[in-house]
């Protein structure tokens, strides 16, 4: 049976380290992250609440801006511009998904690169491509790197397969794995990939970021592989009060006995995304304060 990578425990260690680091800094003000939420999507409400709670635990100030569902792009831009110009704000996070009338790309690019702690702007994606240490790296892939490192998984020269090519997970994940220091040999798959099962079965490190339950079955996993499940899918369940439960993209029950390490859903990658947001916010603060 695989070792189950406990994302909650690793995230707690990161929070503790950030809190200690912050406690050692004496400066005129605390770090500050501004959250923007548009509308009342229940998942977004709960994600932002969680981020506010963790920020408070670490000692990071947070400011929440809630805009109505029918907000227009120019109104959202005006808020982002004012936060960009606010010297007391180190980090800006616009919670996705945004209502349909708003462009996520335009919105993410409106955030000033040095406050773009989500790492979704063209500027930060470009810096990541160049392996520039100033890049703010998208929090989910950055969190996966941290999980892999802290679990003692060696990536150098090994074969990594990333299933999914989104700008927020798949693409930056592939760039991070191939980066100097990680040195994996990376293959990226997507919905048009042929022989997906065959390619996945060659992976020493398999990352599933698809958004479809049961995409990765046991026959697609190499014996002894490390499997990272990014997917968060709501499926109906008669055993929960809410009537649904969260599952990943991996058939956990049948894959776990085959691999060396695996992340659960929930409690794997998810908590690390929040931890990396806090890490990026502290880095932005240090940069702004000249520390
Ligand atoms: P997207 O929908 O943007 O991307 C999904 C990717 O999966 C696409 O590249 C798509 O291919 C590919 N894909 C779809 N179907 C298949 C298939 N049958 N075989 C192979 N590839 C396929 O999703 P995200 O990247 O934003 O998110 C992926 C999952 O991760 C979601 O469940 C999301 O909720 C979760 N997530 C979790 C986070 C966390 O903190 N744990 C954070 C962010 C996301 P194509 O490009 O061809 O369409």
Largest sheet: 6 strands, parallel
The first-level CATH class of the largest domain is given as Alpha Beta
Order of helices and strands: EHEHEHEHHHEHEHEEEEHEH
Q: What's the structural domain tally?
A: 2
- Shape from CA axes? globular
Number of beta strands? 11
Q: Order of strands across the widest beta sheet? A: 1-11-8-7-5-6
Question: In DSSP terms, counting alpha (H) and pi (I) runs of 4 or more, how many helices?
Answer: 10
Mean pLDDT: 97
Low-pLDDT runs: none
Structural class: alpha/beta
Intertermini distance: 45 Å
CATH architecture classification name of the largest domain: 3-Layer(aba) Sandwich
Helix content: 25-40%
**CATH homologous superfamily annotation of the largest domain:** NAD(P)-binding Rossmann-like Domain
Heterogens: NADPH dihydro-nicotinamide-adenine-dinucleotide phosphate
Q: The CATH topology of the largest domain, please?
A: Rossmann fold
Approximate strand percentage:
15-25%
What does this structure look like?
Helix 6 (139-150) crosses helix 7 (170-178). By secondary structure, this protein is of the alpha/beta class. The chain contains ten helices and eleven strands. The strands form three sheets. It has a six-stranded parallel sheet with strand order 1-11-8-7-5-6. Helices cover 39% and strands 16% of the residues. The radius of gyration is 19 Å and the shape is globular. It has two domains: 28-114, 3-Layer(aba) Sandwich (Rossmann fold), CATH 3.40.50; 139-270, 3-Layer(aba) Sandwich (Rossmann fold), CATH 3.40.50. The longest helix has 21 residues, at 269-289. The site of NADPH dihydro-nicotinamide-adenine-dinucleotide phosphate has 26 residues, from helix 10.
